[in-house]
């Protein structure tokens, strides 16, 4: 069995395990116990919840990161950049599988009539409103969420080769990670399902580390993150 096949199998298994854990925690405490917090934690997430909104939006956000990572792997022979791109593609494809698995097991659609990022303006699972941050993000040229590359930027990456492709990828992915960190922190603060909050916090930690690594890789190439 190839490493690619093993990665695909692992993604499916992890998605099912994490999704099953999320459903168990969401349903297991719905027994009329004392305290509003316990009752709220015991419900399967609603379609307009932060849990569902994050799973939907971050799945789309991750898909673009996977696409960009495969693009640069075909356009450079640099092993550092190719290794980073492989790690990002593999990690985010696996995480995307987990989030889509949650939506399936929650019986929720993968698409919503709401605007992307609406869940970040709606408040957290405890009912605390928060209309700041990225809840009012305005999409442009296919960049539906914070940090996402535009159609024009993706076209530029497809046309680039060698060091130019490396620099553009690192700059685009740095922006992408910064937007992803803000979204993941939003779930860590708002989501009601513990495994999803844990996954979101893991995204924050890992992507902040990769942002620092990409800054070093850009510096080694005589470039810097975009302002």
How are the SSEs placed, and which strands pair?
Blueprint: H1 3-28, H2 36-41, H3 50-73, H4 79-106, H5 118-121, H6 151-159, H7 162-190, H8 194-220
Helix pairs in contact: 1-4, 3-4, 3-7, 6-7, 7-8
Write up this protein:
The protein has 227 residues and is mainly alpha-helical. Helices cover 67% and strands 0% of the residues. The chain starts with a helix and ends in a 7-residue tail after the last helix. The N terminus is likely disordered.
H/E order of the elements? HHHHHHHH
Structural class, by secondary structure, is mainly alpha
Biggest pleated sheet: none
Mean pLDDT: 82
Radius of gyration: 18 Å
Give a count of the beta strands, DSSP E runs of length 2 or more.
0
What is the strand content?
under 5%
Helix percent band: 55-70%
Unreliable runs: 1-17, 22-41, 124-134
Shape: elongated
Count of separate DSSP helical elements: 8
End-to-end CA span? 44 Å
Supply the key terms.
elongated; mainly alpha; 8 helices; 227 residues; 67% helix
Brief sketch in words of this structure:
The chain is 67% helix and 0% strand. It has 227 residues and is mainly alpha-helical.
């Amino acid at each position: 069995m190839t490493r690619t096949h093993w990665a695909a199998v692992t993604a499916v298994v992890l998605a099912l395990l994490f999704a099953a854990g999320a459903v168990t925690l969401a349903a297991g405490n719905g027994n009329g116990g004392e305290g509003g917090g316990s009752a709220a934690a015991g419900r399967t997430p609603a379609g307009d919840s932060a849990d569902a909104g994050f799973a939907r939006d971050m799945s789309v956000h991750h898909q673009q990161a996977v696409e960009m990572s495969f693009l640069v792997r075909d356009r450079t022979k640099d092993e550092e950049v190719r290794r980073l791109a492989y790690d990002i593609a593999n990690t985010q494809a696996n995480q995307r599988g987990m989030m889509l698995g949650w939506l399936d097991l929650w019986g929720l659609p993968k698409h919503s009539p709401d605007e992307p990022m609406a869940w970040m303006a709606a408040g957290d699972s405890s009912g605390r409103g928060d209309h700041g941050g990225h809840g009012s993000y305005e999409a442009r040229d296919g960049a539906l969420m914070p940090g996402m590359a535009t159609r024009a930027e993706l076209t530029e990456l497809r046309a680039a080769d060698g060091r130019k492709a490396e620099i553009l990828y690192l700059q685009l992915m740095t922006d992408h990670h910064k937007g992803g960190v803000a979204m993941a922190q939003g779930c860590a603060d708002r989501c009601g399902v513990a495994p999803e909050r844990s996954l979101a916090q893991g995204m924050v930690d890992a992507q902040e580390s990769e942002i620092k690594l990409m800054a070093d890789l850009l510096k080694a190439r005589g470039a810097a993150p975009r302002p």
